[in-house]
Amino acid sequence: MFDYLFVASGMFKGGGAGTGLVFLISLIVLVWFVIAIAGLWKMFQKAGKPGWGAIVPFYNLYLLIEIVGRPGWWFVLLFVPGVNLIIEIILAMDLAKSFGKSGVWGIIFFLLLGGLGYILLGFGSAEYVGPVAAQGQA
Questions:
Q1: Which of 1, 63, 72, 75 lies deepest, with the highest CB count within 10 Å?
Q2: Residue 5 pLDDT > 50, yes or no?
């Protein structure tokens, strides 16, 4: 009976190895996503923001903008094609500086390594020093 279930599900048909590989890659991506969200949650808590904001779409972007000290209307700029790339670079640099890291650190760990910066800031020893973008404008 169990043999029938495996054959019916396609596990032992042609392409079964591809299905297993896709499942494995999906599982790895899911685990990475959960760990990155946990890091973002901890990072929000370090900055005095609600940790649950990490799992709410769009609100988490708004919280990031608040953490770095940029005006709230920058949220709209994240949806303008082309402009959003520049805004993301600036936010990554400001976020790293807000936790006492360099702007280059922000570009490497947030933009190039797919959110590794959230994990390092959330679970690491970095302390929130305040919204550096707001300090630069004052």
A1: 63
A2: no
